[in-house]
Design brief:
Radius of gyration: 19 Å
Order of helices and strands: HEHEHHEHEHEHHEHEHEEEH
Number of strands: 10
Strand order of the largest sheet: 4-3-2-1-8-7-6-5
CATH topology: TIM Barrel
Distance between the termini: 33 Å
Oligomer: single chain
Strand content: 15-25%
Shape: globular
CATH architecture: Alpha-Beta Barrel
CATH superfamily: Glycosidases
Helix content: 25-40%
Structural class: alpha/beta
Number of helices: 11
Length: 351
């Protein structure tokens, strides 16, 4: 998630060079072509989820450590902690999907064995898992893949480990805003070509920019059969009405709702806002009511940002109790109601 868009640090010449290097440096070995996979079904609401994030917003130059976990924990302890968190995502929110970050430091180092405990625990609990690549910090936080020489080996490892687990899905990059729409589509197409044995309906192609529109990737025939991921946030505008937020969201989706999952959206949850009651003067209430109504109307899956992230006012869950046996409580009941509404489950309380 990005709270404020960063200026791109790459010139068009540099972007083009990086794209060429990325494609040329692919270290994954493409496997023999398999029959074309059918496009995903029109109902993406089977993805009812939340993001579980590192307190650093998932931008890191070292292993990613999700809120409540520790690099000192081995596989068994990580699996046990993750099982409790995943169970509470289901019990408290009704979630069945979790989106998790990956980066080369996590996958290529000693912590990978422990981190797999999170993925395995979620899958074993029946959750769908979306694994998304996050870039690093500082000058690397520019919307570009940090280093093709480590990016492709990372995906080789991840795909090899989870290609046969139908619950695990792959998102080649989070918010690829350093690339033009065409450049990003080229990279996504290269990912699909490299990992041809991964069914296309287990791949989430991010919308271009800050994942902020899916119309360009939806129109690219090379990406046919994949899911598309959209991000949408209320802080993008200082103020908009309910109707303006609905219109803003729909233009970013175009006619691609049947393939699109909003795998990041969110509002402040720890500041006392009531999202069940109309508040036309409040931008965030207008926003969250508009987007959850629209997701439900269009039959779109959605993955809230974040289900759990320590120190984030948007977090819909917070850790309580013994850190060795973590439990979660809901930070805003009306926010949870809106999420359930987006997922087609009942409705918010109205005055």
């Amino acid at each position: 998630m990005r709270r404020t868009p960063a200026d791109s640090r790459s010139t068009p010449r540099l972007r083009a060079a990086l794209v060429a290097l990325l494609i040329a440096a692919t270290s994954g070995t493409a496997v023999a072509a398999s029959p074309a996979h059918a496009a995903p079904g029109k109902d993406t609401t089977r993805f009812k989820g939340v993001n579980w994030a590192d307190p650093r917003d998932n931008f890191a130059d070292d292993p990613l450590v999700l809120s409540g976990l520790s690099t000192s924990d081995g596989y068994a302890r990580t699996y046990a902690k993750a099982s409790r968190v995943i169970s509470d995502f289901r019990a408290n929110l009704g979630a069945d999907t979790v989106r998790l970050p990956v980066n080369p430091y996590t996958v290529g180092g000693s912590y990978w064995k422990s981190y797999r405990g999170v993925i395995d625990a979620a899958s074993d609990k029946g959750f769908k898992v979306i694994l998304s690549y996050w870039e690093g910090t500082g000058p690397r936080k520019d919307g570009l893949i940090d280093d093709p020489a480590t990016y492709w080996p990372m995906w080789n490892t991840v795909v090899k480990a989870y290609r046969n687990d139908a619950r695990v899905h792959f998102e080649p990059m989070n918010e690829p805003h350093g690339y033009t729409d065409a450049e990003w589509a080229d990279i996504a197409a290269r990912w699909l070509d490299t990992y041809r044995k991964v069914p296309r309906d287990r791949v989430f192609v991010s919308g271009a920019g800050y994942n902020d529109h899916v119309t360009s990737v939806c129109a690219d025939p090379r990406l046919k059969g994949t899911y598309l991921s959209l991000h949408h946030y209320g802080f993008w505008k200082e103020y908009a009405t309910y109707d303006e937020w609905v219109a803003d969201l729909k233009v970013r989706i175009g006619d691609c709702a049947g393939r699109t999952v909003a795998d990041e959206f969110g509002s402040p949850m720890t500041t006392g806002l009531d999202y069940n009651r109309p508040a036309p003067g409040d931008n965030f209430v207008n926003y969250l009511q508009a987007v959850t109504d629209t997701f439900r109307e269009l039959g779109m899956g959605s993955v809230y940002w974040p289900g759990l992230r320590t120190g984030d006012t948007y977090s819909l869950q917070t850790l309580v109790g013994d850190p060795a046996r973590p439990s979660l409580v809901t930070t805003n009941r009306s926010g949870a109601d809106r999420l359930a509404w987006a997922w087609g489950r009942g409705g918010p309380v109205r005055p």
